[in-house]
Design brief:
Blueprint (H helix, E strand, L loop, with lengths): L3 E5 L4 E8 L1 E10 L5 H5 L7 E5 L3 E2 L18 E3 L2 E2 L1 H10 L3 E3 L3 H11 L2 E7 L5 H9 L10 H5 L5 E3 L7 E6 L4 H8 L4 E6 L4 H7 L3 E4 L10 H10 L5 E4 L1 H9 L3 E18 L5 E14 L4 E6 L5 E6 L4 E4 L14 H12 L8
Parallel strand pairs: 3-4, 4-6, 5-7, 6-8, 11-12, 11-13, 13-14, 14-19
Antiparallel strand pairs: 1-2, 1-9, 2-8, 3-9, 10-12, 15-16, 15-17, 17-18, 18-19
The structure holds glutamine.
The site of glutamine (GLN) has 11 residues, from β16.
EC number: 6.3.5.5
Keywords: Amino-acid biosynthesis, Arginine biosynthesis, ATP-binding, Glutamine amidotransferase, Ligase, Nucleotide-binding, Pyrimidine biosynthesis
Subunit structure: Composed of two chains; the small (or glutamine) chain promotes the hydrolysis of glutamine to ammonia, which is used by the large (or ammonia) chain to synthesize carbamoyl phosphate. Tetramer of heterodimers (alpha,beta)4.
Length: 355
């Protein structure tokens, strides 16, 4: 007799073992890394999603807070083949439902074939298939969660001072990972973190050298205030962005974004720089893409499916990446992004403009 159920949009109800009790719902997605479960589970980009781990054993090196990318677990639920007790206890303490003993190979194929789908979860001694189906019936589509930025951003400014007198960064927190802040800090940039809907006047009062739009959950179309910020400062202050940040900047310069079938979530996504011919291995976690880069130039593409992974403007001093250059988890091929954007900030101009 199972004590955990996952109701899928296909009508199927999967059975499993409850590792952390609860009833919830969310957009079902998968990620493929063998490691990095602490970083993924605390990445605000996964807000309102049910995260399935393709790798069969999750938790085999424990749980340590110093690896966390935010102050809490963000997925609404977790699905795995096997979760260790360390991770199960962590999720219980966080109040996040978790189900294992699921054939995640089969489930990942379902998601690949059917696309990211809504699902309902019921786990624990009172769980039933009907309760999972009830959760599925109230699960919103990701693009309909218009206030998702409020769920992950900050209410007030937070300042992260760096040693030295590097450029000042105004980071717009749409669900930022901590390692993005630390990647800027350790390169000498004082980072001032603002709410996703901060008024332009607060940024003007700081007079920063760089406007940085962070990663984050949900549909980029639901970050109108952040997009307006980009439109306001475009051409006045150099602008950088990661993942959701690239999508918001593209929307701000006459571009377009759209939902992908099932997205890119892993640490082995190859990206080609079309200017140099170099291929780097990247960490990715996105379910939307830039379908039209507008006034930006696409500089890097995903080798697997040609989707835009880098978009820049020399004239408007913009450098953005769809992947996560900070890794955490993942390969360190792309850390140079932070040097490039801070060079742009220090010079007040895109690096190619200063050659
Ligand atoms: N990691 C992110 O910033 C994700 C961006 C956006 N929410 C997407 O899914 O495409």
């Amino acid at each position: 007799m199972s004590d955990a159920y996952i109701a899928l949009e296909t009508g199927e109800v999967l059975e499993g073992r409850a590792r952390s009790p609860g009833e919830t719902h969310g957009e079902l997605v998968f990620t493929t890394p063998y490691t990095g479960y602490e970083e993924s589970l605390t990445d605000p980009s996964y807000e309102a999603q049910v995260l399935t781990f393709a790798y069969p054993l999750i938790g085999n090196y424990g749980v340590r807070a110093e690896r966390f990318e935010s102050d809490r677990v963000h997925p609404s639920a977790v699905v795995a083949r096997e979760l260790t007790d360390d991770v199960a206890v962590w999720l219980q303490e966080e109040g996040i439902p978790a189900v294992d003993s699921v054939d995640t190979r089969d489930l990942v194929l379902d998601i690949r074939d059917g696309g990211a789908m809504q699902c309902g979860i019921a786990a624990g001694p009172d769980a039933t298939p009907e309760k999972a189906r009830e959760q599925l019936s109230v699960c919103p589509h990701m693009s309909d969660i218009s206030d998702i930025g409020d769920m992950v951003s900050v209410d007030d400014v937070e300042v992260y001072p760096a040693e030295g007198d590097g450029p000042t960064t105004a980071l717009i927190h749409c669900g930022t990972k901590k390692s993005i802040i630390s990647s800027l800090n350790e390169r000498g940039s004082d980072v001032h973190v603002f709410p996703h809907d901060v008024a332009p006047a607060e940024i003007e009062a700081l007079d920063p050298d760089l406007l940085f739009i962070s990663n984050g959950p949900g549909d980029p179309a639901n970050y109108e205030a952040t997009q307006s910020l980009v439109e306001h400062f475009l051409g006045d202050i150099p602008i950088a962005g990661i993942c959701l940040g690239m999508q918001i900047v593209a929307n701000a310069v006459n571009g377009e974004t759209e939902k992908m079938e099932f997205g890119h979530r892993g640490v082995n996504q190859p990206v080609l720089d079309e200017r140099t011919g170099q291929v780097v291995m990247t960490t990715q976690n996105h379910g939307y893409m830039v379908s039209d880069a507008g006034d930006l130039d696409v500089t890097q593409i995903n080798v697997n499916d040609d989707t835009p992974e880098g978009a820049e403007s020399v004239d408007m001093d913009v450098i953005t990446r769809q992947y996560h250059p900070e890794a955490h988890p993942g390969p360190h091929d792309t850390l140079g992004f932070f040097d490039d954007v801070l060079s742009m900030a220090a010079a007040g101009a895109h690096p190619e403009a200063t050659q």
